[in-house]
């Protein structure tokens, strides 16, 4: 992680302004109660000694899976014990396996050093719980924080699924001007200060959703100074920050500080995932932050998805315990270097074929490159015609509020090899040239 800048150092010395969590919670977030059946069975699930005549746990005898073993990329073999297999065949705790949660809590102490943990007198406890991945994490956060008609602050371009989830909750995105350093703090202040006058019939936003490290779709990574500036605006208007950190460990070079690492108050809910570093199909991640909110998250999860996948938790816990923190960090560096190499291959192909047709900047990490196509206002047509030519890419309208047409294209460098990237970008350039020629002939743009 990056060393502390003066702005961060000064900020970390500031007094705690504890958020008004109860006022920020949605009606559902306030109303939700414990799952009584799961609470009744918790003693058994946590290893307590009791004769089980209450819960509807499956009988292990007829279940088909009795042995689970897997081999890691370095040849190390891991075999689950009979007890672990039985656990994987049954239900689990809504908050996740304790040993896995403890390992991840140790990681946060090393990687982010959240003030809630480093300040002995902090009034709000820090907590961590396992999730079913980032998307489910966002959905559950929205459930406990958003009411119908609410507004959510976010970057100008953002994760497409977040926009869809806002529609599900009948909430509205408020896009704030964004550049490579992140959301413009002055524009954020202008939106918040003028809100009562501009939107007299709606509540001022109390939630901000952001992806400050290797954003999807832009690849932008926020500067530390801008993080502090935006955080100050959020504490002024008592805004909760949802920090989507799906691509945090894919940063190229030294990893940037996080909002959680400067969260003096306890207003950051951080979402992490194993999807980009261990495997997406395991559907496993974790949420961390103020316990008042993470506790509500667990209550919501217990009512909807019950608990994260037990087998995935056991397998990933074995991997992390085998690695330890030092090897985990080396593995993250190795992973990010693979993506950096792919990004360099893509950038070389763009220089060769798209110079003069588009503009772009090299990302600071992640999986994506964000291109502005010159003289074309709606890239959805480019996406369709590229697809017909055998190249898959995503037009920018997928990532903006109301899915309006844009001049941008998102390219991924995560999967394609050198030869495919070279061929794909050449075809992409030919599609753009053909479209420009058609526009000139028709007198349109």
TrEMBL record:
Gene3D superfamilies with a match to the protein in the record: Type I PLP-dependent aspartate aminotransferase-like (Major domain)
A single GO molecular function term of this UniProt record: pyridoxal phosphate binding
Keyword Signal: no
Example GO BP: alpha-amino acid metabolic process
Aminotransferase class I/classII large domain residues: 88-425
InterPro entries xref list: Aminotransferase_I/II_large (IPR004839), Class-I_PLP-dep_aminotransf (IPR050859), PyrdxlP-dep_Trfase (IPR015424), PyrdxlP-dep_Trfase_major (IPR015421)
Entry keyword set: Aminotransferase, Pyridoxal phosphate, Transferase
Cofactor(s) annotated in UniProt: pyridoxal 5'-phosphate
Keyword NADP in record: no
Protein name, UniProt field: Kynurenine/alpha-aminoadipate aminotransferase, mitochondrial-like isoform X1
């Amino acid at each position: 992680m990056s060393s502390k800048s003066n702005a961060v150092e000064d900020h970390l010395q500031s007094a705690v302004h504890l958020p008004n969590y109860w006022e920020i919670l949605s009606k559902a977030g306030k109303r939700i109660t414990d799952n009584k059946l799961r609470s009744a069975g918790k003693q058994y699930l946590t290893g307590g000694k009791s004769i089980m005549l209450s819960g509807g746990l499956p009988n292990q005898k007829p279940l088909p899976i009795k042995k689970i073993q897997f081999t890691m990329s370095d040849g190390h073999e891991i075999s689950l014990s009979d007890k672990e297999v039985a656990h994987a065949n049954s239900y689990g705790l809504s908050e996740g396996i304790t040993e896995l949660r403890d390992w991840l809590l140790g990681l946060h102490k090393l990687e982010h050093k959240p003030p809630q943990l480093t300040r002995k007198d902090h009034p709000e406890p820090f907590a961590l719980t396992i999730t079913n991945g980032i998307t489910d994490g966002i959905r559950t956060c929205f459930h406990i924080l958003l009411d119908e008609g609410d507004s959510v602050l976010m970057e100008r371009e953002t994760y497409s699924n977040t926009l869809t989830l806002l529609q599900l909750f009948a909430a509205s995105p408020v896009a704030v001007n964004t550049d490579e350093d992140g959301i413009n703090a002055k524009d954020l202040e202008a939106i918040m200060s003028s809100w009562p006058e501009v939107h007299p019939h709606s509540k001022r936003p109390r939630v901000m959703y952001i992806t400050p490290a290797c954003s999807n779709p832009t690849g932008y990574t926020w500067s530390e100074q801008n993080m502090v500036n935006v955080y100050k605006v959020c504490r002024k208007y008592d805004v909760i920050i949802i920090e989507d950190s799906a691509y945090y460990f894919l940063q190229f070079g030294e990893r940037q500080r996080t909002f959680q690492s400067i969260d003096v108050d306890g207003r950051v809910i951080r979402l992490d995932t194993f999807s980009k570093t261990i495997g997406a199909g395991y559907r496993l991640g974790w949420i961390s932050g103020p316990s008042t909110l993470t506790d509500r998250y667990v209550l919501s999860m217990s009512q909807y998805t019950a608990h994260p996948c037990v087998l995935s938790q056991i397998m990933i816990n074995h991997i992390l315990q085998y690695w330890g923190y030092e090897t985990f960090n080396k593995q993250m560096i190795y992973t990010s270097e693979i993506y950096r190499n792919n990004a360099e291959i893509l950038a070389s192909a763009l220089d060769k074929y798209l110079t003069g047709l588009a503009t772009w900047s090299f990302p600071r990490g992640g999986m994506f490159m964000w291109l502005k196509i010159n003289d074309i206002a709606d890239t959805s047509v480019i996406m369709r015609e590229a697809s017909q030519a055998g190249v898959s890419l995503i037009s920018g309208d997928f990532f903006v509020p109301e899915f309006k047409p844009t001049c941008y294209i998102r390219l991924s460098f995560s999967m394609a090899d050198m030869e495919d990237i070279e061929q794909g970008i050449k075809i992409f350039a030919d599609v753009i040239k053909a479209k420009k020629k058609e526009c000139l002939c028709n007198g349109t743009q």
